[in-house]
């Protein structure tokens, strides 16, 4: 793999998406600025809200825990200086509880595993500094993903499973 100094801004942005599915911590250290901010971290686990590579790696682990076979397909990339936009599709299979958090870092909602697969579009926006990701924003088709995974409309049985999973997650967080 090339160093970020040898990679274009578009290459850095695309690679930073791909490592969410399969990258090691060292990949995050290479691509993510020490002061990087993920502006989408407000519903993620508290560890994901940390700045820099540690926070981005925690997000990857959060996603990988809930979704097996996690993959990204990049469709379009547009770069203008240190700003990069990436249109992509995320896919995977829901195999473990997906826990969503409040802005205070408390367990908010838990979606128990359905075993179903999904593929949903996402647009990612990056600002780079020193050849590394400094800021990240995303627009996702969460509604489409939720429908594919059977989260909405929820059946009464699934609502019961959600309540039970939330109770377990809250106990585990203590």
From TrEMBL:
Protein name: Putative ester cyclase
A biological process from GO: polyketide metabolic process
Top-level taxon: Bacteria
Pfam families assigned: SnoaL
Species of origin: Kribbella jejuensis
């Amino acid at each position: 793999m090339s160093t970020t100094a040898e990679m274009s801004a578009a290459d850095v942005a695309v690679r930073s998406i791909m490592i969410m599915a399969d990258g090691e911590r060292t990949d995050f250290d290479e691509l993510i600025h020490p002061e990087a901010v993920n502006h989408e971290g407000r519903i993620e686990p508290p560890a994901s809200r940390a700045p820099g590579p540690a926070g981005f790696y925690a997000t990857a682990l959060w996603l990988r825990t809930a979704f097996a076979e996690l993959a990204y397909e990049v469709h379009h990339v547009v770069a203008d200086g240190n700003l990069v936009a990436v249109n992509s599709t995320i896919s995977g299979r829901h195999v473990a509880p997906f826990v969503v958090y409040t802005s205070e870092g408390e367990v908010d909602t838990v979606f128990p595993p359905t075993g179903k697969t999904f593929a949903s579009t996402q647009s990612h926006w990056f600002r780079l500094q020193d050849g590394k990701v400094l800021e990240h924003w995303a627009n996702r088709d969460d509604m489409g993903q939720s429908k594919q995974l059977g989260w909405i409309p929820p059946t009464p049985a699934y609502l019961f499973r959600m309540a039970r999973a939330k109770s377990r997650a809250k106990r585990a967080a203590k």
